[in-house]
Structures are given as C-alpha cells and as structure tokens.
Fold each of these.
Amino acid sequence: MKQGAFLFNTSRGAVVETESLKRTLREQHLAGAVIDVWEGEPNICASLLDLVTLGSPHIAGYSLDGRSMRSG
C-alpha cells in the first residue's frame, strides 16, 4: 500500500497478516488502520488493538441473534 494510506479490513481476519500490519503501523508507513475482523478471533491480538485507529469486535456470529439464526 502507498505510504500514508488507511487500511480498512471488514472481510476476513486472515486477509491481513497481523505481524506485518503491526510492523507497518509502528513504522508509520500507513496513516492508520480500521479493523472489524481479526486473525484468530474471537481471540484478538491485544498489541494490534493498541496500534489501530479503530478496532471493533466482529462478533455477529456470537450474538444471541446470530446463534438463533444458525440453529433455526
């Protein structure tokens, strides 16, 4: 990605390598990152969470509605 760009990942956690993203953010190559999906979720990398601009819990499948739809 170009220097200064923002990364948005709302697709699948494994699309972005956690360690590579952490390094890129620490080096300030990217202006920031917005992450809604996490590699290894529901267990997320806390050190990546500290680096992202915005992190949200992509846990729709774990919600009451999500579970009832799967079993329904």
Amino acid sequence: MNSICSRCARAVLWLSLYFVAFAHAAAPEAEVKRQAHELLLAAVDANTPGIVILVTRGDEVLFRGARGRADVELDAPLLPGDVFRIGSNTKPFTAAAVYKLSEQGRIALDDPLSSYLPTFPNAAHVTVAELLCHTSGIKDYTETEGYFDAAIRADVSTSQLVDVFKDLRVDFAPGTDWKYSNSGYVLLGAIIEQVTGKPWHAAIKELLTNPLALNNTTYDDGSALIARRAAGYSVDAGGHTVNAPYMSMSQAAAAGGLVSNADDLFHWMSALHSGKVLRADSYRRMTTPAALPSGRTGDSACGLAALRVGGEAAFEQVGRDPGFMSETLFLPKSKIGVVVLTNTDSPHTDISVLAAKLAATALGRPYPQRRPVALKQTQMQALAGEYQRAQGGRRTILVREGRLYTHRDGGMDHVLRAASENELYFDEVLDYFTVTRDASGTVTALEEFANGEQPPLHSPKLGDAKERPQR
C-alpha cells in the first residue's frame, strides 16, 4: 500500500508543477467563450428567468452573454445590459464610500460609533472599522423571525431601520469574533448620512458612481423608472416559477439597496482594484480581513470576501434579494473579472462556483473535470467514519443504500462522489478530498481542498461513523 502514498505524493507534485507551468499561460479567448457558453446553456432554460455572464481580462471582454427571460409574463428576452437588484454587492460601494470619507478627514475608522450615532446602544464600544469588517457583534436584523413575512414590504428611513435592530441582543462582544451582519452596513449608511447630510445612496453617487460614470448603478426606490430593469422571480414549493415577494429597497438600505448591470460592475471592480477609487493604504485596509483575539482572521475583508482562485488571490461578493442574485469576482494580479447576475433567487446553478470556474479558465488553470466511479461496498466502508476538521468541528462520512454521504457537525447530508478510492468530491461545489492511508492501507485522514484550492486542510480520522435518523 506504500505505492498509494507515493502516487498521492506524485499527484501533489504534479499539481504544483502544473500551477507553476501555467502561471502566465492565460487561456485563449476562444476557450473562455466556449466554456462560458456551455455554462450559460446549462444554467437556465431559454424560457425561464435568466442569467447574465460577463468575463473580462484587463480591458478586454472575453465573453458577454445572456440567456432566459427578463420578464417571463411579457416573454421579453434577457439582454447582457439589463439592470438587476444586486443585494449585498452594494456593500463594497458602501465600504468604499466610508473609506473615501475617511481620506477626506470626515470619518475616522477607529472612532467609536458613538461619535456619529451617540444614542445607539453600546455605541461607545463599537468602532467604524468593526462595522466594516463584520466584527461588531451587532445582530443581523434579517435573522429576526418573521422579518421576511411582512416587514420587508414597508418603506422606512435609515433611522427607522436602525430602530428595528438597535435593542436586539448582540452576538458577541465587539472585536472578539466575526459574523456577517447586514445591520453593520445599515449603520455605515447612517454614518454616511450623518457626516454628509445626504441620503447614503446620494453620497455614493457623488463619491463613486458619478466620477466613474457608472450610469446604470443607482438606488432602487421603487418609484423611479429604471431603463431595462429585469423583473425578479422565485420558485415555489412545487418547483414552479412565481413572482418574487415584494421588498422595499429601503429595507436593504446601504447593505443591499443598489441596482446595476454587468458592465458597470466590471468597471467598478476594475477601478477599485487598480487604485482608481482609494489610496493604497485605504485599499489595503479594505481588502484585509480583521485579526481576531483567537489568532484567526475574519471570514471576509471589509465589504468583500477574500479567497483564492486557481492559486491566485481574489475578491468576491455575493448578493441576494427576493428575485435576484449577483456574483462579482476579481483577480487583481491577472486583472480577471467575472460578473454573474440572475433575476431569480433560486438558480439551478451555484453562481459562485460558475464564476470561479470561468475565472480559473481565463487564468489558464481550469478546475479538473471529474467523472464518478463506482466503489465497492468494502471501499466505501473503509472511508466511513468521523474526521476532525482543521477549522474545528467534525465531518462524518456515511454509507447509505450504496452511496457515500457526508455532513458537518450535524448539518445536512450531501452526496459525496468518488473519482477514485482516494479522491472524493461534490457535484455542486469545488471542494474535494484526497485520502491518506497508512502502510496497511487503512484510512487515517482526509486532505480537504476548500474551494478546490491548495494548501489542503488535514482532517485526521477519529473513528467509526455514528448513523443518525434520516431527514
């Protein structure tokens, strides 16, 4: 069985050499177009709510395409320039506006919230920087039970929205942990309003979108006519397309109230990551995850998620509103950008995975195309067990009715495929595992490649799996 270990070592070496060899071998435009077109066709049906994809490298558009319907009832086709609600892709604009005001001396990032909103509970102990990087501990108001049933329909001012969550119990003491919080970005919008004397979206327009000529990026107040705005859709319990529930964008505020289109978002990402928006020190701070007392860093930077694609540093943001989803992904070193927009909040395709695949292809380092193989019952049973995850918690692998399943810490079961007895993967995400064995062939650990990226995270096997009632 030592040959198995040596094969794994050779595979890791091959992958390392692969990334080195292709470090500067960007894919030809034709290959990017081919894959983008295939993914577009697979993502949606032509007669359903649709999807827009834009892939760029530098100033060059490698692919711009759309499929599906902008308005299903009117049978209006979706076009690449159509406008969508972008949800949390609003947050990078809000964060950049705060940094811009900081550069002007109008906001101090390390000031307490009480300097701007003195009546907010515990405001003296929460900083602007903690709001930006989701380390404030202020509870996300969208988690309030029943919030999406009725509250989202009402038009509110920023101060009225702050009143919704100001007295909610905090998740943790400020600066001690990380948790994504829409509330923090509503408060940033309130700070912007306080120091500029203008609505948060008017300040963003003056500071960012007007100077960058982002003419399709604006606030959706529900009454203004917005040219080429796509209608939003959901899917009901029976799998049928339905109109998305109404949501006042005042309820999303500076956390998610903007609309935009693919080209504007590309130009926005390009400008932000090339030094055309912020000074170098501000940009560095915005794109650096916060350090926590535990020694780990937060799960995202300030208004952006930091990750790796094809071995290269990247930044992304995912947005979701009733009826819409958005994904922006940018690799600053290679200047590769991907924008994916949908006018359904229930796309069949994971748009983050789709964007990562396109970026990796444009980079010249495409993710492997795996095909499942059938394992013997004894091979599957050898893999079954509990594993200690490097990030904390446990992963369980089970064999049920001739298939492998896995879940983390009591979560939902997911089907686990096998490319071989020593490589496991998912259909729906890029994560995969290689299997470590001892000299006798006994499984001792999994090496987890989160988002399909190096380096692997070591998960030693603890023992046999404990079956639980099926859900």
Amino acid sequence: MHKGSPRWRNLTLYVMSLVFYAWGEPRYVFLMIAQCISAWGLGLLIDKYRGHKASKTFMIISAVLSLSGLLFFKYANFFLTNINYLPSVDLPLIGLLMPIGISFYTFQILSYTFDLYRGNTEVQRNPMYFSMYVTLFPQLIAGPIVRYVDVAREIVTREHTLQRFAMGARRFIFGLGKKMLLANLFGELVSIYKQSGSQSVLFAWLYIAAFALQIYFDFSAYSDMAIGLGHIFGFRFLENFNYPYIADSITDFWRRWHMSLSSWFRDYVYIPLGGNRVRNSRFIFNIMVVWMLTGFWHGADWNFMLWGGFFGIILLIEKFFLAKLLDKAPKPLRHVYVMLIIFVSWAFFDAGNFGEAFAVIGRMFGVGISSLAERESLYYLRSYSVPLIVGVIGSTPLLKNFAEKLMGTEYQRAQGSGDRGQEMGDSEMTQALKMRTDRQRKAKQVFTTILEPLVLLLILVAATAKMIDGSFNPFIYFRF
C-alpha cells in the first residue's frame, strides 16, 4: 500500500489531463484553465470574507463567470436562432464549436463554489490541486459529475493498493466492453432505422428499444470506465447508474439514472428553491424549473426542453395522483408503465425536432403507418435478437447477483436452508455449515482465479479488436 503526499502525482495527473483534453480540443484547453484559476481565486475570497456580504458577492461573481462560458458556447446559437424568428431580425450565429465536456466541468466548479460558500467544504489553497480536480481526465468528458467535497480528502492524501488497482482495472474493462460490444451494436441498429425510412410499427419499436439500450450502455460504460480509472488513481467516484430500467416508477427511475446530475439539481436548485416544503403551487413551479433546466442541460434545443418538461409533468402526476395506485399495482404492471414512459421520452431525446419525435411515437402506436411489420423489420429483428436479449439481461442485476451468489458469505447462504437446519442437531448443523463453507470457498476460488480473469481477458480482447476494426463508434454525450 502506498500512502502519502500526492504532490507529484497530482501534478502528473493535471498535466496528463490537459494533454488528454488538448488532444481533442487544443483551442479550449486555455478556456478551461482560465475558468479553474478564476474559480480558485474567487474561492479564496469567498473563504476570506466568510460571514460578510462580500462572501456572497464573490460567490455570485464566481457562479456567473463559470456559467458564462457554458451559456456562450452551448446556448448562444440557440438564443440567436430563436431571436431571428422575429420580423426584420437576422443576427449572425457564432461560428464556434462547443468545448467538449463543458457541461460537466462547469457543474463541478459550481459545486465547489456553492459548497464553499455554504461551509460544506474547506477552501483549496493550492491552485494546481484545484485545477487537477476540475480537469481530472477519467470523468472530464462524460462524467460522472464529481463534487469537490466527495474527493477533497483524496486530493490531499490517498491510498494506492494492488487490490484497488485490480478493482479499478476490472471496472474499466467491463465499461469498455459495454461501450464497444453492446452500445455501438445498438447504435448500428438505431442508424439503420434512421436511414431506412421504414414506417412499420415493429421497426419503430426496434429502434426505440435499441436507442434505450444504446444510451444506457454508452453512458453507463463511460461512468464505469471513469470510476475504474478513479480507483486506479486512488479516487472513489460515486456511482452514476443503478440499473434504472428495473425501476417501478419514474421517481425511482431518476433515483437510478445519471445520479450525479439528479443529485446536483436537487441540492443546488430544487432545495434552494424550497423543495417540497412549500405550498403546492410553489412545489409545482420548483419541479418544472428543475426539469426544464435538466432538459436544457442535455442540449440547446426545444426537444430537450420538452423532454425535461415531460418528465416534470409525469413526476407531478405520480406525486399527486398515481403514488397510491402504483403502490398497489403488481410489479410487472408498474415496470411496463415505466418502460412505456421511458421509451416515449427517448423519442423526444433522440429526435432532431418535434416533428420527428411525434412521427416515431405515432408509428409506435400505429398512427400513420404502412404496416405492422415488413420484411426489412423482420430481418433486423432476427439479426439483432440475440444482442437485444443480451442487452436486456445486462441492464438488470441478474449477472451481478449471480456473481455475488458465487462469492457470497457461507453463513448467509446457509441461512437459505434455515427451516431444515432447525430440524437438525447442533453437530449436524455445524457439519452442514462446514460442508457448505467448503463448497462456497471452492466456488469462490474457481470464480476469482479462473472464470473472472478469463471473462475479463475475453472482453478486453474483443473490445480492443472492435476498436481496431470498427469505424462505427458514436459518442452520444460528446455534446454535453
């Protein structure tokens, strides 16, 4: 185990993170550095004048400066385009690409600023340490959103062990496999649908199911790889996904999907607005503001705002009308309800405009279609049936539970035969537990020394081969 001052390790991570970012965005690396230095310096002033009005002033200045880059690069063209709809208005659009990952690192800077002002974390006096936190490359591009308060101790001192390295490598390989072997495959089916011009009900459902699996495996894969790399470098990043497609309500879904973003809006927008400890009219306002902002965070277009507003309305309906009904409904029925809502929402999320979204939803439910199924849709159903089944199973905790069962504690597993054990004497029970313990130990040994390394090796080889040979490698969250 290695433990101590991370000065040189932090410097190495900071430099490598800048190189990593500059490899794809050489122009905007200086923007990110400037935002880091600005937030760090204003953080010192927030802390220096704590308890005075000046502290709040510096907090506001820091937040405005941090958000200004995001608003300019991500949303300026959206506002200009909509202003140009006014009569006799023809403003030129800005001809700049959006910096990759700006939504993520801006929210990380804001979390530090707000927590520092509230007194929830201590000020970071080392500018390089703070900049390393913001630019840390494992989660810089696609999250999860890491709050400073969650890694503050590990920035100053963190531990490196062979066990944590192995755990991180395992998580990274699984994430890489999810991205290259599953997400990209579902992305191919999504692309085929968009190019086909099919009007059948079956192909519309194939498309939306493929996109649901693509976006889950794509985004959760990046989170897995980031968390894995975090372990390798001594950081513990919080989980970002918890099998959202097994949720039994939309409220539950958003406790499981992109958890770092949901909790960010909860703590820094929803609760400051008053949360649910307000009259109903204000509560409705708070929910809709949070979800319109959530949608707008995902993309500078009206369909994303509609997507966010759609979820806000559904959550309000659950709160006021469906909560008791859902509690009494059978679990399979609740799950069907959730997936139906999620599928409709993904149609808005992936659409280029309202027309495309409503066209897809219409086809899903038989509106404006030429047939229920056609030769092309049946062909792709047969071709992708196995990957779709694998994807559905992989989006549930079935495989995880199976692995945990193999590696579970012998006592807990022995309790499964408790009724039988009560009929046995103490010596017989002890002997049965010992035999079960031996079997458990052997199964665990086989799993950890043979099966798991073999599976990881196969995933790594297959994913690497896919990266080398495959040209189709979409990155859904690059625009965020």
Amino acid sequence: MSDKRLTQSEIESHLKAAANLLRGDIDAGDYKQYIFPLLFYKRICDVYDEEIAEALEESDGDEEYAEKLYEHRFVVRPENHWNEVRKASTNVGDKLNKALRGIEFDNKENLTGIFGDAKWTNKDRLTDETLKELIERFSMMKLDNTHAGQDELGNAYEFLIKYFADDSGHTAAEFYTNRTVIELMTTLLDIEPGESIYDPTCGTGGMLMVTAAHLKKQGKEYRNLKLYGQEINIITSAVARMNMYLHGIEDFKIAQGDTLSKPAFKEKDKLRTFNVVLANPPYSIKQWDRASFEKDPYKRNIYGVPPQGCADYAFFAHILKSMDKETGRCAILFPHGVLFRDFEKGMRESIIKEDKIECVIGLGANLFYNSPMEACIIICRAKKTPKCKNKILFINAVNEVRREQAQSFLTEANIERIERVYKAFVDEDGFSKVVNISDLRDCSLSIPLYVRKNEFMIAEEHTEYVVANQYQKWLNQTNELYENLEQLIAQLEETEVEE
C-alpha cells in the first residue's frame, strides 16, 4: 500500500474493482449493501489509527492518553478493527458482522444501524474467498484524512452511486437522481448558510448533499446547514447516513420509515417545518396507507385524499405542510401527470387556490435512468413576492438538455437560462409564460397549454386551442404509458422476488 495521497481516479479504480468482485454472485442492485459498508468501515478504522498517531505525538508516546483520553470521532475497540477482521481466513462473514455490530454498539448515538442489514454470513452469496478478496482490495487503500480527503471520498461516493445506477438497470431510478437536475433545483431556491433542508424521500441523500456542495462551490459556509431526510428502505437510509459522514457533514438527521404513514420529524402534534424542501418522491406508487391518510392527524388531507393507485399528491401535501410559514420554499420532481390528471383535479384546484405554486418547469426526456419519460419541477413558496402573487410561471425547458455517450444531463448554460427566466419571472417567446391563476384552463398546469413553439402560435384563438389540446392529449397518453409500463415492471419484479 502506497504512502502517497490517493488521487480521485485511483480511489474510483479500487472501488470499481471491488464492486466487480461481486459480479455473478450478487445482483447489481444489491452491490450497495456490501460496498458502502466496507468503504465506511475502512474509513472509520483508518481515521481512528490516524487519531491515535496524532495523540501519541502530542503526548510523547502516552498510549493510555491516546487510547482512552484522546477525543476520537468514533470508538473502535481492537477486536472490531479492520486489521483484526483481515486476519480471518474462515468464517470471515461472521467475524466481519460482529465487528460492524460492535462499532455500532460502541457508538450508539451516531452509528446505530448504519452498516445496514447485509447477510455477511450467507456463504451461498459470499464465500470466504470472495470476502477475503474484497477486504484485501480495500486494504490496498489508506483512507485516513492524510491519504484520502473528504472531497475525494465524497466524489468517489458519487461515482459509486452513478456506477451502481448504470449497472443495476431498472432499480437505478430509486437509487440515483440525475445530479444536474438537483443542481438546477438547488440553484433556483437560493439556499443560504444555516438553513434547514429537508428531503422526505431522501434515498441515498443525494439531494441533501448537492445543497452542501452548491454552497461550497459558491465559497459560502456549508457545514452549518441543517440537513434532514427520511427514507423508507433500511439499506438505502443507512447509505444516506454514510454519505453524510464521508462528505464531512456534521449536523444532519436521517430517519428510516414511511414518510406518509409515520413522518419522523414532528414538533408536538404537528409536522416540523423547514426553510427548504427538496424532493423526488417515488412516482405514482400504489401500495400506500390511504386509509390512515384519510384520518391524518397532521391535516395533510386538507386538499383532499389521493386515489389508492397514485400517491403523488399525498407527497405533495406532505411537502407543503413541511414548509416554514415565512421562509419556506420547495422544489419537487414529479411525473407530468400531476399537472393534468383528472382524478386529482380537486386537490390540484385546492393547492392552486392557496397561491403557493410559483413555477412549473418541464424537463427534457432521458434525464432519468432507463426511463424516457419526461418529468417536471414544481416550485412553491409559502409567501410569494408581490410580483408573483396570483400568478404561475410556466417554463418549457424540454430542449435544455445535452446528451453525450448515452447519458442526458443539464449543462451550466441550460441551468443558467432556466434560472435567468425564473428569477426575472417574465415571458419569453416559446420558452416561458406568466399566467394569472384566474386564466388557468380548467385547473390544468400542463405546460404546452400555456407555452408553445412559434409554429403553434396561430392567430385565431380557437385554432390555437385545438392544436394545443391535440398535442396535450398525445403528451398525456405518452406519459401515462410510460408510468404504467414502469409500474408493471415493478410489480413483475416483486412477484419474482416473492416466488
């Protein structure tokens, strides 16, 4: 193992090689259960050793001071150390599992459950030989602060997120949200140091981390952001917590559980509120507790109750209730269906009347893994500026996208154009339109009804409306088809797992 500082490409190369050791034995969608805990475990142990060395130097070799009195970030007893697990040649999974649980136990306040629930002792999935190879691969890297800084590890973490998303096919959508889209959402909300940021369906914590990275890139203080997230999947929520630590974030809380039925962040009998809410809720889920939402004690049902087959507006209502009454604003990534579906018309009308929706942005296709479906961003504010009151800005940004090497993303120029029009809150021919709430057509927020390309701008209003409606019908049918296909695939996969 080299004593020099690891480069970004060297860390990524090692992590990719480690993941490749699992090919054939474990489904690509499950790599995260094993690679992230090992990365975090190695980091904890290497930083602990670094702290010991610094304490010995400070105390002229006083080992008692170094082991017991020195302020360690995390406690690592000798029997739980990486080097001890590395010695094992048989029952490696059992030795590793005991070490991980031991570290969690010794650091209850911060690390309980952080290593997830991977079946390390299942030799049918992970033989001793494979685990030894994995451990040796990680042992080739020294992951303390001297040899691997937070920026490099944070970037490597993002590399893994994307690598697993590329490799795991259909499961990628719930594991990885296009980072350039999150950058756009963060930019539009003008997040400031010290604010509280909340993601009710946080996945691996990507949206929360991008807010911190955004402030850091601007040269602003990012470490005093207060980051909160909730994630229903136990493994993914554990990965989100590791993400925070690897990026050097101190003030955060990631809760595991169902946001709709058991919201984690409360103040007495009300939902806790935040300065900013960023979210990419799971699209149109059918398996949710509609019955309890009908009797919701937090009054998220004031706009109505969504149908069992589609929980999008339940998340929408939760997010609106989670915004601070003075400074609160949110950016939500939704499927286009929320803008116009008939069975949610009543709820949509109630939300529109509250005058919290400030902007609706239509994004281009293929920005999400294995899904050509176009999405939209809805931006809301608890208190609009006088210029924006009783108005909604529609932005048609479907062409603001670049595609290279089979990947679609937003460039800085794309983001800057959207930001410029959003902050100016103005009409731009064929790109944006400010619409009075009273002028909305049948409570539809469908962007093509208000923003059309020049070829659709026909002088006669009747003809214009017919053309727009025909286009809208086609768009609705296309997006609904994609949603139905994705739901069908998910149901088939669940059936296969049960069998």
